[in-house]
């Protein structure tokens, strides 16, 4: 296969609609011990081999609680991917944020309930460190890309991941706000955890599609979709610049995540 001759070190996981980012793309189907992920586009971006995985399937048919996160991350691992940049639609809990804003979270709180969150169900008993869950090197590259492009970006933020697919109640959002949460989404966990378990760097680029429950009259998917669509050109620009900015060699601790994680 032509495009698989070169190493694929970087992957983008995102929503349907970001595919045009990848040039000379070829769609490949990868099998994993955890099931079959959506077809992965492999091609070039800034002269680097990049994979694009549409998290919800090619036609957005898989809801967030049914995404096969293990198959997705394992498939990228099998392709040799060492870094994942994820895009996530989020609702704003922090009142200073507005729809259309971009956020590079530095931490998360996990409020998912039903998802398999580990590759290590059995021995070796493995506890990966989550003191710094998102790769600092990718985060720095995302922030630098925004600076270079003259795009405003929130350089820090706490993300809460909920189970979905329902949206949150007002009381839940108020609770999250009191816990110090800035944005709410349904897809960052367990992606970030599974990537760390395979020593893959991972960082999210979040775009605010709405104010969270209780902060605007009502939430509609058409609003989320409309705002997401508007964000796509700037997301594409930032992703392009970020891939350009990433150093060839990884200088973070992510590649050593398993060194002190085992009993
Ligand atoms: N809640 C959860 N997930 C979301 C939201 C929200 O308000 N907006 C976009 N993804």
> In DSSP terms, counting alpha (H) and pi (I) runs of 4 or more, how many helices?
5
Q: Structural class of the helix and strand makeup?
A: alpha/beta
- CATH architecture label: 3-Layer(aba) Sandwich
Topology as H/E string? EEEEHEEEHEHEHEH
Could you explain how this protein is built, in words?
It is a single chain. The chain is of the alpha/beta class. It has a single domain (10-256), classed as Nucleoside phosphorylase domain (Rossmann fold, 3-Layer(aba) Sandwich). The chain is built from five helices and ten strands. The radius of gyration is 17 Å and the shape is globular. The relative contact order is 0.20. The mean pLDDT is 94. Bound molecules: hypoxanthine (HPA). The site of hypoxanthine has 14 residues, from β5, β9 and β10.
In short:
This protein is of the alpha/beta class and 263 residues long. It contains 5 helices and 10 strands; from the N terminus they run E-E-E-E-H-E-E-E-H-E-H-E-H-E-H.
Give the secondary structure arrangement, pairings included:
Layout: E1 10-14, E2 23-28, E3 40-45, E4 48-54, H1 69-78, E5 83-92, E6 102-103, E7 107-111, H2 136-149, E8 158-162, H3 170-178, E9 183-185, H4 191-197, E10 201-211, H5 221-245
Parallel strand pairs: 1-4, 1-5, 5-10, 7-8, 8-9
Antiparallel strand pairs: 2-3, 3-4, 5-9, 6-10
Helix pairs in contact: 2-5
The structure holds hypoxanthine.
Features:
263 residues; binds hypoxanthine; 10-stranded mixed beta sheet; alpha/beta; Rossmann fold; 10 strands; 25% helix
